[in-house]
What does this fold into?
Amino acid sequence: MGALDDLSGKRVGVQKSSIQEGIAQDIQGAKLTSLAKIPEWILELQTGRVDALILEKPVAEQYVKNQEGLVVASVNIEQAEDEGGSAIAVKKGNQELVDQINSTLTKLKAGGDIERFVVEANEMLGE
It folds into this structure.
């Protein structure tokens, strides 16, 4: 029994055609509201039209900072290796580029930039 099981029978808001929508579809008895834009999700939550939202953690944390009355319930969701994450494809044999990419990713992760990029990308969806 986990936090996602607690959403059984609840009204849950998710982004249309997202990984989170797929996760929510597996919650038995949940009533889903799929919306395209983050401000719509927040309004649905604030007005009581949904009981909870399933968002990427950096996005949820950003909205909690800027909106009164919201809290984050952090849940780790296991995904199969081939279902989660992101990847960068590089032509085989180009080790110099792979090394540059890995170096840049290490710097971005250490500086918290990856999370910032996720938040900014999700905000662009709301425009």
